[in-house]
Amino acid sequence: MEHIIGQDRFQAYTSTLEERIAADNPVRVIDAFVEVLPLEKMGFKVQPAATGRPSYHPKHLLKLYLYGYYNRIRSSRKLSAECVRNIELHWLIEGLTPAYHTIADFRKEHPKALREVFKAFVSFLKGVDLLGGDYVAIDSSKFRAVNSKKNNYNQKKIDRHLAYIEAKTSEYLQILEEEDKADGASGMLKKK
Asked: Distance between CA 139 and CA 119 in Å, rounded?
């Protein structure tokens, strides 16, 4: 009995990236979400500079950032490496390969806009019926009505919860910053 044989590396293929990404792949949701965002209104720098090297469009870097968030890739260096080897990212950001420094700078330059993206993402999911909220399901258990402090909401409690969410968002962005610094330090040690 013989071993399973792989494909010839020198064989040319006629498939497109579009054909290689399944219709239900989560990168399609990320792509659709970013495409409908009013990036300039949210605070992203959409207009390129008149001089200097051409820049990446913020939609590509935002897609990359959201892909990293979805796949728990926090480091800019690791995201940059994924751009080269990951077929989903080839499809999502159209074959672009930004350097790790470009990805890190994007995060640093747009902290408020990234917070707006988090808020818009919930609205987007509701808009495409991926997030409900209209129905309550129970398992036919009998419950006694109790209006405890845990189960009711007032404006003060809602404001406190929103502040908590803001703090968690800031904490996550800080973790990303620390990951980039740690990667930068390890990168400098490798060069020496």
From this structure: 31
Q: Tell me the pLDDT tens digit for each residue of 8-23.
A: 888 888 888 899 999 9
- State the residue range of the domain holding 78: 17-191
Contact (Cβ atoms closer than 8 angstroms) between residue 100 and residue 183: yes
The answer to whether residue 114 sits within a structural domain is yes
Tokens of 174: 């800080």
Q: How many domains does the chain have?
A: 1
Judge whether 3 lies within some domain: no
With b for 16 or more beta-carbon neighbours within 10 A and e for fewer, the 149-186 pattern comes to: eeeeeeeeeeeeeeeeeeeeeeeeeeebbebbeebbee
Q: Please provide the average confidence, as pLDDT, over all residues in the chain.
A: 84
Nearest to 56 by CA among 97, 90, 88: 97
d(CA 27, CA 86) in angstroms, rounded, equals: 12
Give the pLDDT band of residue 145 (cuts 50, 70, 90).
Answer: low
Contact by Cβ (8 Å): 105, 31: no
